[in-house]
Amino acid sequence: MPAKIIDGRKIAADIRSAIKLEIDERSMDIRIVSFVMGISDAAEVYIKQKAKACDEVGITMDVVRFDIYSTKAQISDEINKLARESKVTGMLFELPLPEHVDVSSIVGLIPPQMDIDGMSSDNLGRLLMGKPCLAPSTPSAVMEILASEKVELKGAEVTVVNHSNIVGKPLALMLLNKNASVRVAHVFTKNLKAHTKDADVLITAAGVPGLIKADMVKKGATVIDVSMNRVGDKLCGDVEFDEVSKKAGAITPVPGGVGPVTVAMLLLNALTAFRLQNPKG
């Protein structure tokens, strides 16, 4: 029996509807600022997606562009100026940043309560301790998808193929906080198949087209493909979709899987940030 194709667009639409309802009912004025350094085709695509989603739910999104060689002091001054404006709810940097930029240092300039991408050391530290925080959007999207599919994580064997600060590490923490048994692998892992073939849930974000083949997947497993790779004119993930979908129990497509939910979770973080900043609002 072929796998269930998980509809990320439907999950995202439901999240956006709930956000819009609360914003409308409480007449919230939520404004987020997206910082861009230099020119990146990928960043421009993400900006358009986020702007469209913000407009749909009633969130204002502004874009502030920095020169590729802007200094840390210049960026800090702009962030501090915006942070003083009461109308600014959240901020984020569009990734990837230029290679010469220390991502953690620059992201750390954003006040934790406005860090809607959940990348500050404060928010990641709270995540480590299992405390409420603004969590990274992509790992949050994966957890939302698993919850929507009613995947039981307690005691489940879960393999995450990614060890980045953006996806793999925070996702592993989120899964551990749900009492899953988590293995973290990556593109440098020797004998990757040994780490994936028995996983009840397999999550990959390696950015390597065709990395995950059918013989690496447990029959009936839930497979979440976070990656979005361009091969020729087509977008694909890490998973050999046609073959793996014949073996898995459920699987996310690329595109239409994790991506839309990631954007929706960013909007949810903006809403959460507004609640934190306006406890009596």
Describe this structure as you would to a colleague.
The chain has 281 residues and is an alpha/beta fold. It folds into two domains: 28-111, Rossmann fold, CATH 3.40.50.10860; 137-258, Rossmann fold, CATH 3.40.50. It has helices at residues 8-26, 41-57, 72-84, 103-107, 121-128, 137-148, 168-177, 192-196, 241-244, 258-277; strands at residues 4-5, 31-37, 60-66, 90-93, 157-161, 181-185, 201-204, 222-225, 229-231, 234-236, 250-251. The strands form three sheets. Strands 1-11-8-7-5-6 form a six-stranded parallel β-sheet. Strands 3-2-4 form a three-stranded parallel β-sheet. The longest helix has 20 residues, at 258-277.
A few lines on this structure:
With 281 residues, the chain is α/β, with parallel strands linked by helices.
For this entry, give a set of tags.
3-stranded parallel sheet, 11 strands, 281 residues, Rossmann fold, 6-stranded parallel sheet, alpha/beta
The CATH superfamily of the largest domain is identified as NAD(P)-binding Rossmann-like Domain
According to CATH, the fold-level topology of the largest domain is: Rossmann fold
Can you summarize the main beta sheet? 6 strands, parallel
Radius of gyration: 19 Å
Low-confidence runs of at least 5 consecutive residues: none
User: Judging from the principal axes of the Cα atoms, what is the shape?
Assistant: globular
The CATH architecture of the largest domain comes to 3-Layer(aba) Sandwich
